[in-house]
Amino acid sequence: MLTIAQETYDAIVAHAKRDHPDEACGVVAGPEGSDRAERFIPMVNAAGSPTFYEFDSGELLALYKEMDARDEEPVVVYHSHTATEAYPSRTDIGLAGEPNAHYVLVSTREHGNSDGPVEFRSYRIVDGVVTEEDVTITPTPEHQEASTA
């Protein structure tokens, strides 16, 4: 199961809507071995395509160096689908190289960059096998503190 803060969920959805009609992509990093999605990192879709995403190799290398220095790992790898459901394509499955990551897909096919709901789904992809998992959205810690004060 993926547990993600409301603030991070909102940021991923906003990025997907902002980049529509092109696919958006990014990472949410967290402490190594923790499975805690904490640091939202929107990336550039180097492909600039409505049907394909590709991380910029220089940006991705810099990100991995930064995560290594911070003892982090990619907890979530996300991208959007602009015209199809939020399910990994054969290309997505082939590119899934992080066996511990949650692969989140956001479909903006229904409302594009307009107001309206999106399809937000999470998967584990290991050795080409796709397993959908539940997503739990938790209140952002700052909101919890504000509501208890």
Question: How does this structure look, described?
Answer:
28% of the residues lie in helices and 33% in strands. It has helices spanning 6-19, 57-69, 90-95, 141-148, and strands at residues 2-5, 25-31, 39-43, 72-81, 102-107, 119-126, 129-133, 135-138. Strands 3-2-4-5-6-7 form a 6-stranded mixed beta sheet. It has a two-stranded parallel ribbon with strand order 1-8.
Please supply descriptive tags for the structure shown above.
two-stranded parallel sheet, alpha/beta, 149 residues, disordered C terminus, 6-stranded mixed β-sheet
Shape: globular
Biggest β-sheet: strands ordered side by side in the sheet: 3-2-4-5-6-7
Query: What is the count of β-strands?
Result: 8
Whole-number mean pLDDT? 93
Assembly type of the chains comes to single chain
Tell me the fraction of residues in β-strands, as a range: 25-35%
What characterizes the major β-sheet? 6 strands, mixed
Number of helices: 4
Secondary structure class reads: alpha/beta
* Proportion of residues in helical segments: 25-40%
Radius of gyration: 15 Å
Q: How far from one another are the termini?
A: 30 Å
Unreliable runs: 143-149
| Topology as a string of helices (H) and strands (E) | EHEEHEHEEEEH
